[in-house]
Design brief:
about 150 residues, elongated
């Protein structure tokens, strides 16, 4: 048998012999399990987005080649190659990576709304001896002389 609470904690946790901490622990466990599932979904979304984008090295190489071709474009001899690099970058890399980024952002915005749920409130009833007493009228303290 597990150890029983004692003292003030016992009075706060026990109500007619029934432990009132069990539903609270179950609610907190469910809340935590939900947060873990949401976090795992965010990790999966990141993994999917990271694998879907065109690697930055490919895009950087494309831009470097276009820059070199622009710098050595005497009398338009590299114009077809420049157009080819620009079409590849602005027609394939940019739309593909931005659509993957927008999909990832939409998944994260949905998941962040699920993370905004506060934890369950603690539910315990104070012992009947500790019920709140009605407010007493305020009295001015007596002056003590002497």
């Amino acid at each position: 048998m597990p150890p029983q609470p004692s003292g003030r904690f016992r009075r706060a946790c026990l109500d007619g012999g029934q432990q009132r901490t069990q539903p609270r622990i179950a609610d907190a466990g469910g809340w935590t399990a939900h947060k873990i599932a949401v976090t795992q979904a965010a990790v999966e979304a990141f993994t999917l987005a990271a694998s879907a984008v065109i690697p930055s090295l490919v895009s950087i190489t494309n831009r470097a080649e276009a820059q070199v071709l622009n710098a050595t474009n005497f009398m338009g001899i590299h114009t077809p190659a420049i157009i080819e690099r620009d079409v590849e970058y602005y027609g394939e890399h940019w739309p593909h990576n931005s659509s993957a980024g927008w999909a990832y952002a939409s998944v994260l915005s949905t998941l962040s709304a699920a993370l905004a749920l506060p934890p369950p409130a603690a539910r315990w009833a104070p012992h009947r001896r500790h019920r709140q007493q009605p407010a007493r009228p305020w009295r001015k303290p007596r002056d003590r002389v002497g």
